Amino acid sequence: MRISTEALVPVGPPPAKSKVTGTRYGWRIQPACWKVWYPVWLAYPAGLLEGSRLLDAPPHHVSGEETIQIAKDYEFLVLFTSTPGFPGDIRLARAIKDANPTIKIAFVGPHVTTLPEKSLRECPAIDFVCRKEFDFSTVDFANGKPLAEIPGISFLKDGQVVHNPDAPQVQDLDALPHVTEIYKRDLDVTRYNVPFLQYPFVALYTTRGCPAQCTFCLWPQTLSGHPWRKRSTDDVAREMARAKELFPGVKEFFFDDDTFNIQKARTVELCAKLKPLGLTWSCTSRVTTDFETLKAMKEAGCRLLIVGYESGDPQILKNIKKGATVERARQFTKDCKKLGLVVHGDFILGLPGETHETINNTIAFAKELDVETIQVSVAHAYPGTELYDHVTKNGFMVAGSKMVDEGGHQLVHLEYPGLPADDILGAVHRFYDEYYFRPKAVFRILRRAAFDGGERKRLYKEAKMFLKLRSARNKLVKQHNRAAAEAEPVKA
Q1: Measured distance CA(342)–CA(196) in Å, rounded
Q2: What is the pLDDT of residue 401?
Q3: For 305-452, where are the alpha helices, taking DSSP H only?
Q4: Model confidence over 293-304: pLDDT tens digits?
Q5: 40, 115, 208, 467: least surrounded by Cβ within 10 Å?
């Protein structure tokens, strides 16, 4: 399961006076606001285009003003955007265009894939948008190909929107560059941190697409598609061997595929080639993964799995077409614990069918599983997903609501009969408290800190951030509750 949450990240230009400039800027709003992920998608065209530069602004402390100044020297900007970040991104695009009127700007990502015409009309500074995978469409334009001849793009011509036919999905993933080479060239890996991964870490993909049909998941329904395509195991092993040389100080590699281990034979084959490298790595996983596959992963250096449990209610799992059961989730978690694999569990509150009772069931289920760490998100219905169509059709979208506030904190924009949005938001706060303030969870954290000095320092920092976020979230819940109470009519 992929949480489609992004942080402010630009892709910057190639050296001054070069023929083409490849740049991106986009927002990644993390549920916890303390994770910084890699701009993997933009690393591919950056690697395909000679003279390009990948600029990831926030973690590298490059301000919006500095980005505008950088863009003055370049001809072409590629900006990765998202639904919550789009308003800020178009303000940036306008400012860049004002500073450099001749620059060409392309927006990419799920939001413009789903709403190309709306995006173009909202921001005339956008010259075109790339729908779905954009590796070759952006490079074609940079190399001088006319817009009318580039598959998969949309643009305005004489006030009318032109949608070129879709580009074919990339099938030969081995033909794409290794993103780790681009990271080494343009990024500082010490700027990236995710609390449940060892620091520093490096993230990359070994596959694209996801055959699962989860109704809420953004990426397979918009950008990467459902067809599952894989890099050869030899190509992945080559990149990992090279990455080990490039980043001797990196503690962990993370395979950020939508579903890394969905095909047993391929996973076992890849593990056999990773094992001699002696790497520590982590990945995403579905609960349908069997014990034999998990064992091969553990023996090859796998440390942690990010697992989308989503809900502890069987009917909600059916409603969202998860393709998994609570029983299977229990067995999978037992298998991971038996093998010594750490699990970071993802849960979502506010999915179709949610009630106060199902929320309690999910909290109880999470405590029963007792995985190392959790993430609790509120359900977000992104345009282009089946969930969006469902909640829009049934009137479950809160009028005028936003997905995040100005500080990047999650807001609830869905509610159901008997379950107001504020109750869902309050339940997220309660979920974290009930999970992490249990004696068992507290003891586990203290034990880690006691036996590992480096981990103790890291845990202290994370605890400070967690408590700061908890305070902000609690304040937000109280504000919403106050506003709701004031809005209620006074009874005679």
Answers
A1: 10
A2: 80
A3: 314-319, 326-339, 356-369, 386-393, 421-436, 439-451
A4: 999 999 999 999
A5: 467
